[in-house]
Amino acid sequence: MGYIEGEDRNQIILFPESIDEYVSDHNSIRIIDEYIKQIDLKRLDFKRAVNPSLGRPPYHPKDILKLYLYGYLNRVCSSRRLEQEAIRNLEVIWLIRKLKPDFKTIADFRKDNKKALKKVFQDFTRLCDEWELFGQELIAIDGSKFRACNSKKNNYNPKKLERHLKYLDEKIEGYMQELDHQDMAEASLKKPDANTIKERIQQLRDRREKYESYQRKLKQSGENEISTTDPDARLMANHNNNVEVSYNMT
User: Fold this and answer.
1) CA of 226: how far to CAs of 117, 210, 217, 235, in Å?
2) pLDDT score for 50
3) How far is 114 from 46, CA to CA, in rounded Å?
4) Distance CA 147, CA 136 (A)
5) What SS3 class is residue 107?
6) Non-local CB neighbours of 195 within 8 Å, separated by 6+ positions
7) Residue 38: DSSP 8-state
8) Residue 245 pairs with which residues in a beta bridge?
9) CA–CA gap between residue 120 and residue 126 (Å, rounded)
10) Are residues 99 and 122 in contact, defined by beta-carbon separation less than 8 angstroms?
11) Which residues, in sequence order, are CB contacts of 181 under 8 Å at separation 6+?
12) Alpha helix segments (H runs only) across the chain
């Protein structure tokens, strides 16, 4: 009995005719899309809320905001990871309509709109809690749960409101700091280009061929070991019971 085989990478396949077919009607990602549509970017003081008339066209702030809100919901704390999600994650491809912003564009958006982003995270979290979305969990970073389905749910007083808002602010601030930390840690990382990847693959193939040639030599010679620099040297135990590649002079 053979193994389960994967698809041929060169086989032509038919994807859905529209991007909308990538995401089911009941997928929660649609909530993010509708939520961002009704946001007033100018009121929240987002940069480039008005389309500039000069220079190269930028990404629409709402598209990058959708990406960050998705990352917030799914605890993706890295601009580089958000860049990758936009390429390989069908939900994100649907959400931002196949746009592919690079990690620097994503990181700069956060740096330019920190206060506005916090306001959006706060409002979205309160909305999710009010609607009892996403398993009645507060959308926050460390998985902490905010129980809001008890008998006192709709009863508020100044202290309770202050406590809830403080909790939200602490979690959101922690998420923003984690984003900064991840971007700083990845600042020195270089993404390999196509030529570098090809070189690395070829190096691995060359290494495999070298080891296979050693196997053939051992099989032909009938020996149980081979030394490439000193053909007569062999693994031997010394006086300290350590094994070294050595010559037997006797």
Assistant:
1) 63, 13, 8, 10
2) 83
3) 9
4) 7
5) helix
6) none
7) T
8) 235
9) 10
10) no
11) 77
12) 29-37, 61-73, 79-88, 90-95, 103-112, 114-131, 158-185, 194-221
Local structure of 103: helix, strand or coil:
helix
Residue 179 pLDDT: 73
| Ranges of the chain whose pLDDT falls below 50 | 135-151
Residues with Cβ within 8 Å of 237's Cβ and at least 6 positions away in sequence, in order, are 243
Distance (Å, rounded) from C-alpha 53 to C-alpha 190?
Answer: 34
Q: What values do phi and psi take at 235, rounded to 5? A: -70, 125
Contact at 8 Å (CB) between 173 and 121? no
Name residues whose C-beta falls within 8 Å of residue 113's C-beta, 6 or more positions apart in sequence: 46, 47, 61
The domain limits of the chain are 19-185, 194-246
Q: Cα(129)–Cα(147) distance, rounded to whole angstroms?
A: 9
Nearest CA to 191 among 29, 96, 79? Answer: 79
- Amino acid symbol at 8: D
| Cα-based angle 37, 38, 40 (whole degrees, multiple of 5) | 105
Contacts of 228 (CB under 8 A, 6+ apart): 214
The residue written with tokens 């939200």 in the block is: 168
Tell me which amino acid residue 163 is. R
CA dihedral 166, 172, 177, 179 (to 10 degrees): 180
Q: Look at residue 126 and give its three-state secondary structure.
A: helix
